[in-house]
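user:
I keep going back and forth on a fold encoding question. Separate attempts, laid side by side, tell us more than any discussion would. Would you put together a sequence-and-structure record for a protein of your own picking? Write it directly below this note and I will take it from there.

assistant:
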Amino acid sequence: MYYNNGAISIVLLITGIIGLIAGIVALFIFLPKKNRYRYNGFLKYLYDFFNFDIYWFISVFKVLFIALAFMCVVGGAICLFIHFLSGLGIILAGVLFRLLSEVTMIIMNIGHNVSEINTKIAKPKPPQKTP
């Protein structure tokens, strides 16, 4: 099948320019720090998402870990009967991946905890009534 590479380039250029303009507008109108406590519901989620206060990496990483751990345990157990050292190597690779995953999750949790502490410290205090 023949594709017109010129048309694809033009579409990518136009969408890139529109995306850049939308990003600049969002940066100055929607994402300033003064708007942190202005939004509720879905807009708050979007504000937190675009300011990287919410991370998807942890959820995606957990799913990938479960899939890879299953592959290593089941595949390694099956390979133990075919070629012992290969099966053992696959199981040990799963253990090594678990250790690396724990280090990654520790770093991500430290970042999350620091972010929560920062949010609690930066939360504006309600105005006090003067007698």
